[in-house]
Amino acid sequence: MPIAERIRPILPDLAAGAGLAMVVQAALPLSLRVGALAMLATVAVYAGVAAAIGRAWPAHRREFGWPNRVTLARAALVAVLAGLLVAPAAIAEHGQMLAALAALALLLDGLDGWLARITGRVSAFGARFDMEIDALLILVLSLALALTGKVGPWVLAIGLMRYAFVLAGRAWPKLTAELRPGRTRKVICVLQGVVLAACLVPAVPAGWATALASLSLLALTASFIFDTTELARRPDPAGEPR
Fold it and tell me: pTM for this structure?
């Protein structure tokens, strides 16, 4: 089924998400409205998210549902944050505002899963959608922190690690297997967003930002090593360990 036909039932939801991104950007302080380039970047990021939704949206589903709408609202906030990356000076000056937007996105991260559970709308699509927006938020925040100059470019490893894991899975298919649900993994993921957002606040000095980001990267690396080891030890489809 063509993507255009498959996503027709959810087009109003995708349009609402785009509208939310524009409203949030328009509500920013004048000094943070850094012109048409930021708007274009926001639109481009949100369009990329919408296109990914279109490719992954199950053809048999007709209603987007409130849990996914909350995740889409998070995507709109992430798109606004990504648009501001075109103005490093504004990021450094208004880190507190960016941290507040990131904090709102992190709070909504807990709401979408809760709604899915209480409404019986837990789905593979929703879980994947939530995970991808988590990863995108962490990437945007790590880019923002690097642009402030508080922390060296190595902080980008926090945002890129999950994408490196996905690319590694293409070369080593065992890494694409489903991981067992784990609270520790989720806590570490949330920790990345909290730490990166906190480090953007101007009151946090460069030394503290470096120390916090280093500990965050260490925890994330340990989590990925643990998950990789678990997947590597699983037997292959033929039942023989590699």
Answer: 0.91
